[in-house]
Amino acid sequence: MKTEVNPKDTDRAEAFEMWMTSPMPMVTLTKTYEVSNLLKTSKKTNVKFNALLCWCIGKAATQIKEFYLLPDAGKLFQFDDIAINVIVNNCKGGINSCDIPFTEDITKFIEVYNTLTAQVSAECKSSFLEDYMIVGTSAIVQTELDCIVNQYTDKFCNPMVMWGKYRKGWFKTTLPISFQFHHVQMDGGHGAMFLKLLQKEINRF
């Protein structure tokens, strides 16, 4: 469920006053991750690497209450649930968006991920969840990237997690990940905590 809230009744009241009308309120943090276990799990289970990473992103996000708040059109909204948005290559050579509801049951999440992305790819039609707080993702896996800074538009204030191709070394595989968020939604400390929790969830594999 999506509910409008009074910013003054939240911990983000001061941030709302400071950053809601800022022309450039987005913050981008980048961290290099050790993803060897995630890659091994992907190959062993035949589950897409990006699908596993998206589950880790959702798991980390649900542990930080600021992720459930989102500024939009001069207002602040509270959400009950989180979903992960992925970009899907469709059957006509274009791309579409696909929102995937997060669940802690990883088997169920992967099943829904596969079903929805396959449907979007076949129909060439984006799929959106209006009542979920959307964490966007963008995987540009054609090459290795050090950092990604996304475009800023007031039409999309949601947090974004972005990455390129992972880097295989002799003893470990690494992946730089960029995290972009609206300063009204959270501060740098919350962003840093999310990045720390993401590594923790990746390490569980």
Summarize it.
With 205 residues, the protein is of the alpha+beta class.
Structural class: alpha+beta
Largest sheet: 7 strands, mixed
Number of strands: 10
Radius of gyration from the CA trace? 17 Å
SSE sequence, one letter per element: EHEHHEEEEHEEEEH
What percentage of residues falls in helices of 4 or more residues? 25-40%
- Outline type: globular
Distance between the termini: 31 Å
- Please state roughly what percent of the residues sit in beta strands, choosing from under 5%, 5-15%, 15-25%, 25-35%, 35-45% or over 45%: 25-35%
- How many helices does DSSP assign? 5
Uncertain segments are none
Instruction: Please tell me the overall pLDDT.
Output: 95
Multimeric state of these chains? single chain
